[in-house]
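re the bet — no i am not wrong, look at it urself. input seq straight from the record:
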Amino acid sequence: MVDQAKKAHDARDLTRPEQLDLLGVPTPTEMLEARRKLGPKASALELTAEARRGRPPGAKNRAGQDFRRYIMGFGQDPAITLMQIQSTPAEILMEQSRRTYTRIDRHGNPHEIVVELSYGEAQQLRKQCAAELMPFIHAKQAAVDKDGEAVAPLIIAGSTHTQQQVNDIINAGTLDVDWDEVDD
């Protein structure tokens, strides 16, 4: 009986998923290997980023695409619905929202109650739909030249960048950002 329990316990240990190292502190051997792969100045953070699990950066989320395709089979795109509401005059929205209810008071007499959007509520609904659509319609566009190619950023030593920054760019380094100079 004890042997069976021990075997069951050992079998359970073998099927357990691997525990992830949440602290991510690499060993000196791992750091040496990382510096061979990533360069002499590779940090522990770069090493853990290189070894992380999951979908690689930039890879498409297939589950999200599958869900999008599935859900779109039931109706129209939500952006179209937003645009239809936004482009409908407030008066028509008020009329379409009108509902009539019959209530019976405590004496048994029926009363009709008409409920509809006010003009202000209809305008507010149109405004909310427009605000939801604005980032998609008036998004910042990437700079392109006359042929449609992406424009490279302008780099001028002494004007747009310091000489050290230009040297870093040429040597494929990174720029240090001075957050005091960045506009909000």
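see?? Residues 157 and 164 are 9 Å apart (CA to CA). told u. also The two ends are 70 Å apart (CA to CA). so pay up
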